[in-house]
What we know:
alpha/beta; globular
Amino acid sequence: xxxxxxxxxxxxxxxxxxxxxxxxxxxxxxxxxxxxxxxxxxxxxxxxxxxxxxxxxxxxxxxxxxxxxxxxxxxxxxxxxxxxxxxxxxxxxxxxxxxxxxxxxxxxxxxxxxxxxxxxxxxxxxxxxxxxxxxxxxxxxxxxxxxxxxxxxxxxxxxxxxxxxxxxxxxxxxxxxxxxxxxxxxxxxxxxxxxxxxxxxxxxxxxxxxxxxxxxxxxxxxxxxxxxxxxxxxxxxxxxxxxxxxxxxxxxxxxxxxxxxxxxxxxxxxxxxxx
Length: 275
């Protein structure tokens, strides 16, 4: 009986372990030849800081009303931003985060041309036509229409600093040459070469990106609320070297990460105030 009980316990433990393995997220290894090396560790430490971080929304346990996210406006004239982003990209982030905050989100892809007609009517300032479209099909029970606009993307500051040992190396060589001895001249030449090979540099640029959100009453098409938030995006690079050995690092949060963080801050406020 004891052996049977022990066997049953062992089987139970094995099943539990297997179940935990089955539901665990898949893990993938890097195929890079530098994986695990110094440069890999440095690059991954920087990359880890830009990974997606879920927000613990204050009222996420409270079901929110049905909402539709429509593409907002991008009022920035920054060419890099305009090449990388469209209003639809930002609306996709909005749908994701509002869903995470427990709002019932009607995805744009499931609404067909009706949503597009609503957008046109709303943007043309025709509330009657806009209301007509919101009364159709799945859109009937919508309470809020939400949009996220990019109002600012500008580089506000930059700074650089560097050190080049070339001048000091030349001075060391000259001092050795004027020492009056062959040994001093040779030492000066070697020291000059060593000092002259030393170099280091650092550069940082800071951008400010600003986002506005608007909440529109789906029944009346009147604006109920709006808010604005900004985030700094810092990008930097360092380099250094001596005696033929060089190293460098560059990194920082990208535009994708910054836009998603702005959406998260906006949704946090919507969840806190307007659920």
